[in-house]
UniProtKB/TrEMBL annotation:
Keyword Signal: yes
Residue ranges of the TM segments: 285-309, 351-377, 383-403, 424-444, 456-479, 500-533, 539-567, 579-598, 610-638
Topology in membrane: Multi-pass membrane protein
Pfam families in UniProt: EMP70 (PF02990)
This protein's name: Transmembrane 9 superfamily member
Cell compartments where the protein resides: Endosome membrane; Golgi apparatus membrane
Length: 649
C-alpha cells in the first residue's frame, strides 16, 4: 500500500523532482496506515455499484466565457444538486452538478434513452450559438475529466491524444447543398476504463472517454416511457457507430438524447491514470528549449562574473592606492559619485511600496512552486493552484510590510504606518479595479465565469481581514529593527550629472535590460499561455521552477551590469532605474501576449478580447513588480558591496 501510494503521489505530474518527492512523502507515510493528498484519494467499486457522473461547465477557446451545463436545454435530472467548489474552482468558472446519466460498475448499457426535447425558436438559437462558438461539454467521473480520444500518426507510428470534453455539436452541409446546417451530438458512447484487483475483485476507475455522435433517432407509434427506437436498439443489435444520418438543430425539431456505456479492463494502475491525460507530444522541444536557455544563462553568468570581478578588483585596487590629493581630484568612474550614490531617490515612498509588493509576489510564486512540485497542486486537485496562490498572497503580506518598512527606515523615514497602508492597498486596489470591470463584462454575458457575490465577499475578507493586518504587523517588525547604515556618507549638495552618451540614456538602457529576462522565459511562457487559453493541462512544475531560477539570475545579472555602467558614467540615480531595468521585461511579456492573441487564438468577440487583454494586463503588472524587485535588491547589494570596499576620505 505504501509503495503504491508513493507512486501515486509522485507520478508524471511532478516527474522532474520524483526522487526528492518520494523521500519526503515516505517520511509522511511512515507510521501511518494510510495517507492521501487532498482530493485524490482512491475509491474502490464493486460490481454493480452506482457511479456518480457529474457535469461541469461548457467551455470554448473562441469566447473564453464558460457557461453552466444546464444553461442549455439538455435533459435534466429530477433534482439538480450543486457540488461544493473550492475558491479556485469558482474563480475558474467551474459549476459542478449531478448528471442524468446512470452508470453501474462493470455493467454495460446500450442505447439508453435519456429523454427528448422539442426545440422552439429560443432553444434552437441557444444550441446554434454554442455550436457556432465550438463549445465543449465537460463531465467528471471519480474526479477524472471526460476526454475524447483522437488517433493520429506521429513519426510513422499511430498514437492517441486526448481532448477535454466533447463538442456540443458541429456545422456542415448536406450533400449537394451549400447551405450551412447545425447538428447536435445527441448520442454519447462512453467508455469507462478500470483496473481490477485480482484478490478482492474490486476495481478502480482509470479512464473516462466518450465518442459523440449526431443521430436522427426514429421510433414507431406515439412517444412513451417504453418507446423503443428503430435507430438504436440493443435487442435487434442495431447500435450507433457513425453520424451518417445526423440530428439537425432547427425550430420544432425533436431531439432524442441517448447514450451507451461500456466498461473495459485496463492494465493502467490508479497511480498512473493521469499519465495519458498529461502526455505531451512536444516534450523533446520543451526539454531542448529549457536546456538551451539554461546554458545561455550559465554562460552569461560566467562571463558577467569574470568581467565584473576583474574590472571591480582593478578599480578598487586603483582607488585605494590614490594617496595624494591631486590624484584623488583626478579620479574618475564610479568612486567619484560616492557622496551621492545613496542619496534619497525621488518618490522614495512609492519605491518602498513597490519593493514590498514585489517581495510579496516573489514569496507567493516560490512557495506555490514548491507545493506544486510536491504534487499537492496537480490537475487532479481542481482549483487547487489558484486557491493556493490567493492564500499565499494573503499570508505573504507579512513579508511585504517588513520589506517596505525596512527600506523606508533606510531612507530615514518615520511614518511607517503610511507606507504599510500604501503597501497593503496600492497593488491589490489596481488589480481589483481591473478585475471588477472584467467581472462586470462577464456578468453581462450571463457566464458562469462571473464571480458570485458570496465569493466576492470572501475575497474582500481575505484582503481586509487577513492581508492588511499582516502587512501592518510586518511593517511594525521591520521598522522597529535597527537600520543598516550606508557604507559612505552623502554630500549635502548633490553632484551635477554629466551629459550621458546615447547608449546610457535611461529609457534606452531600461528597455535593453528587459529583453534578456524575457528572452530566458518566453518559451515557457508559450506553454503557460497555451494551458490557460487553449484549455490544456500544465503540470511540468519542475521545468517551471528551473525557468524561475533562470529568471531570478538573469534579472539580477543584467541589472548589476547596467548599474555598474551607469555609475561609471557618473550617474548616481540608480534606485528607480535598477527597478525599471529588470521590471521592463513585463512590457515584452504584454507585447508577446498580444502577438499570441493574433497568431494562436481564434477569439472574435469584443468582450472575449477585453477579457484576454485585461487578465494579461494583470499578469504583466504582477510580473513587473516581481522582476523589478529582484533587480532592485541585486543592485542594492552590489552598490553597498563596492562602496564598502574602497577607502573614502
Amino acid at each position: 500500500m505504501a509503495m503504491e501510494l508513493l507512486r501515486r503521489s509522485s507520478s508524471r505530474i511532478s516527474e522532474s523532482s520524483g526522487s526528492a518527492i518520494a523521500l519526503i512523502l515516505l517520511l509522511f507515510i511512515h507510521g501511518a496506515h494510510s495517507f492521501y493528498l487532498p482530493g485524490v484519494a482512491p475509491q474502490d467499486f464493486e460490481k454493480g455499484d452506482e457511479l456518480k457522473v457529474k457535469v461541469n461547465k461548457l467551455t470554448s477557446i473562441k469566447t473564453q466565457l464558460p457557461y453552466s451545463y444546464y444553461s442549455l436545454p439538455f435533459i435534466r435530472p429530477k433534482k439538480i444538486v450543486d457540488s461544493t467548489e473550492n475558491l479556485g474552482e469558482v474563480l475558474r468558472g467551474d459549476r459542478i452538478e449531478n448528471a442524468p446519466y446512470t452508470f453501474k460498475m462493470r455493467e454495460a448499457q446500450m442505447c439508453n434513452i435519456l429523454g427528448r426535447v422539442t426545440l422552439d425558436a429560443k432553444t434552437a438559437k441557444a444550441f446554434k450559438e454554442k455550436i457556432d462558438d465550438e463549445y465543449r461539454v465537460n463531465m467528471i467521473l471519480d474526479n477524472l475529466p471526460l476526454v475524447v480520444p483522437i488517433e493520429r500518426v506521429d513519426q510513422g507510428s499511430p498514437s492517441v491524444v486526448y481532448q477535454l470534453g466533447y463538442h456540443v455539436g458541429l456545422k456542415g452541409q448536406y450533400e449537394g447543398s451549400k447551405e450551412q446546417k447545425f447538428f447536435m451530438h445527441n448520442h454519447l458512447s462512453f467508455i469507462v476504463r478500470y483496473h481490477r484487483d485480482v484478490q478482492t475483485d474490486a476495481a478502480r476507475i482509470v479512464g473516462f472517454e466518450v465518442k459523440p455522435y449526431s443521430v436522427k433517432h426514429e421510433y414507431e407509434g406515439e412517444w412513451s416511457e417504453k418507446t423503443r427506437l428503430t435507430t438504436c436498439d440493443p435487442h435487434t443489435k442495431r447500435l450507433v457507430v457513425s453520424s451518417a444520418t445526423p440530428q439537425e438543430v432547427e425550430q420544432k425539431k425533436e431531439i432524442i438524447f441517448t447514450y451507451d456505456v461500456d466498461f473495459q479492463e485496463s492494465e493502467v494502475k490508479w497511480a498512473s491514470r493521469w499519465d495519458s491525460y498529461l502526455l505531451m507530444s512536444d516534450n523533446q522541444i520543451h526539454w531542448f528549449s529549457i536546456v538551451n536557455s539554461l546554458m545561455i544563462v550559465l554562460f552569461l553568468s560566467g562571463m558577467v562574473a569574470m568581467i565584473m570581478l576583474r574590472t571591480l578588483y582593478r578599480d578598487i585596487s586603483r582607488y585605494n592606492e590614490l594617496e595624494t590629493q591631486e590624484e584623488a581630484q583626478e579620479e574618475t568612474g564610479w568612486k567619484l559619485v560616492h557622496g551621492d550614490v545613496f542619496r534619497l531617490p525621488t518618490n522614495s515612498d512609492l519605491l518602498c511600496v513597490y519593493v514590498g509588493t514585489g517581495v510579496q509576489c516573489l514569496g507567493m510564486v516560490f512557495v506555490t512552486m514548491i507545493f506544486a512540485m510536491l504534487g499537492f497542486l496537480s490537475p487532479s486537485n481542481r482549483g487547487g493552484l489558484m486557491t493556493a496562490m490567493l492564500l499565499l498572497w494573503v499570508f505573504m503580506g507579512l513579508f511585504a510590510g517588513y520589506a517596505s518598512s525596512r527600506l523606508y527606515k533606510m531612507f530615514k523615514g518615520t511614518e511607517w504606518k503610511r507606507i504599510a497602508f500604501r503597501t497593503a492597498f496600492l497593488f491589490p486596489a489596481v488589480v481589483s479595479a481591473i478585475f471588477f470591470v472584467l467581472n462586470a463584462l462577464i456578468w453581462g454575458q450571463k457566464s458562469s465565469g462571473a464571480v458570485p457575490f458570496g465569493t466576492m465577499f470572501a475575497l474582500i475578507f481575505l484582503w481586509f481581514g487577513i492581508s492588511v493586518p499582516l502587512v501592518f504587523v510586518g511593517g511594525y517588525i521591520g521598522f522597529k529593527k535597527p537600520a543598516v547604515d550606508d557604507p559612505v556618507k552623502t554630500n549635502k549638495i548633490p553632484r551635477q550629472i554629466p551629459e550621458q552618451a546615447w547608449y546610457m540614456n535611461p529609457v534606452f538602457s531600461i528597455l535593453i535590460g528587459g529583453i534578456l529576462p524575457f528572452g530566458a522565459v518566453f518559451i515557457e511562457l508559450f506553454f503557460i499561455l497555451t494551458s490557460i487559453w487553449l484549455n490544456q493541462f500544465y503540470y511540468i512544475f519542475g521545468f517551471l521552477f528551473l525557468v524561475f531560477v533562470i529568471l531570478i539570475v538573469t534579472c539580477a545579472e543584467i541589472t548589476i551590469v547596467l548599474c555598474y555602467f551607469q555609475l561609471c558614467s557618473e550617474d548616481y540615480l540608480w534606485w528607480w532605474r535598477s527597478y525599471l531595468t529588470s521590471g521592463s521585461s513585463a512590457l515584452y511579456l504584454f507585447l508577446y501576449a498580444t502577438f499570441y492573441f493574433f497568431t494562436k487564438l481564434q477569439i472574435t468577440k469584443m468582450v472575449s478580447a477585453m477579457l484576454y487583454f485585461g487578465y494579461m494586463l494583470i499578469a504583466s503588472y504582477a510580473f513587473f513588480v516581481l522582476t523589478g524587485t529582484i533587480g532592485f535588491y541585486a543592485c542594492l547589494w552590489f552598490t553597498r558591496l563596492i562602496y564598502s570596499s574602497v577607502k573614502i576620505d
